[in-house]
Amino acid sequence: MAVPGLDQVCGSNFAYQHHTLERCLDDMVELGRTTMELWGIAPHLHIPDIDGHGVKNVRKLLRERELTVACLTPEQVAYPINIASGETWLREGSVQLFLRAAEICSDLESSLLFLTSGRGYEDETLEPAWERSVLALRAITERASELGVSCVLEPLQRVESNLVTGLSSLERMVEDVGHPDLGVVIDTVALAVAGDAISEYGKSFGGKVRHVHLVDGSPAGHLAWGDGYLDLTAILRDFGQLDYLKSFSFELFGDGSYSLDPRSSYQKCIDAFRDSASQLQQLHNG
Questions:
Q1: pLDDT tens digits for 182-205?
Q2: Is 153 within 8 Å of 185 (Cβ atoms)?
Q3: Which of 37, 86, 87, 245 has the most CB atoms around it within 10 Å of its CB?
């Protein structure tokens, strides 16, 4: 068993939307992070509007701090972004956003572009929306692959989507898209809400698990560790049993106070990770 290490934990700008990007990056460096998951939102990196000069400025800010980007995560759950929409104008605009995001990924030398499935109308059958999602994900993944970027797909909670919401629908979607550069993301809150297990993801996807949103919940919430009731030590043990050596990040959204003092919330998560990993290492050493 490989005990997950703190060097696998990315910094991120989740919860920093009311602070400058510079403040976020400085905090992450001081917290010992060397890689970032960048949430593509205003004012830090608004994908619909950022131009080449803006991307160069973000790259400059990162390089000045010797930070690299592990994953770019466009906003994609909130209206009006929906790659499975039944409205042609909305769906095509959403796909164009991700095609642009793939270019930005390449410019920032990020290896991963983060995707979700979108959602269909609640008062219609799901198959048309499913097919729209398949076509959109395939087009985005193909373009990203041309640019040297791999895509990763995350299941959402049922309140966020009616398409990919757990392991079984994720398996089907990855198979239907059928592209070798499409991997998957495990979100520990979505996992708990769906009642799935990390070991099941390992059996289904193996090395295709390429990124993890590691967050506490009750079971939902995207909370800092200790603010919910998920068992971090058990979760890290399960990832260790998969010999998972790729990236983790803390996606903090669940408490409005996080955005007032995001650094303290990240420090809390890092401390919890360190404590749980230390416990596992002691058990591993016997």
A1: 999 999 999 999 999 999 999 999
A2: yes
A3: 37
